Amino acid sequence: MRKYICKFLMWVFGWKAVEPPCPEKKAIILGVPHTSALDFLVSYMYYYSVGGRAYVMVKKEFFWGPLGPIMRWMGGVPVDRSKGATVAKQVIDAMNNAEYMHMAIAPEGTRKKTENWKAGFHTIARACDIPVYLGYFDWKTKTVGRGVKFELTDDAKADIKRIRAYYKEKGVVGRHPEMFTTGSDLD
Fold first, then answer.
1. Using an 8 Å Cβ cutoff, are 33 and 112 in contact?
2. Which pTM was predicted?
3. What pLDDT, on the 0 to 100 scale, is given for residue 13?
């Protein structure tokens, strides 16, 4: 039922889903560009509309009382951000304990303009031996997809540079275009 509701909402809001879910049982899907809280809703509607179920990291503080079951139902995975570098470890543990998990991660780490993308997705993917897809939501064309599979190397910094170049070439536009950059080293 959720699939058809999401398909309907995608149609109502003028969004087009362009790719099916990842074929693997476990994967990381990057969400780029991340410039608005609405990016979560667009990607949520997209992934369910194509028959997938995506998960996303959410601050553990949102899992109190009756909100906890709702957050889990929506694919929220609680993480304790006060522990800094252990956020990746928390997601690795969740991924390793799950039979199925397509984790959506915004490498920018914030909706604000940032030059530095985080490498946590790289750490998680390498530790769990799972693929990374270059997902996107393009507010200009109102298209959303899981993107192409990206082959990681041992060099996270070089991989992030190649990923940023991919998004620059693709020309995706965020809801707030001024808040997105693929990096001054690529401009």
1. no
2. 0.87
3. 95
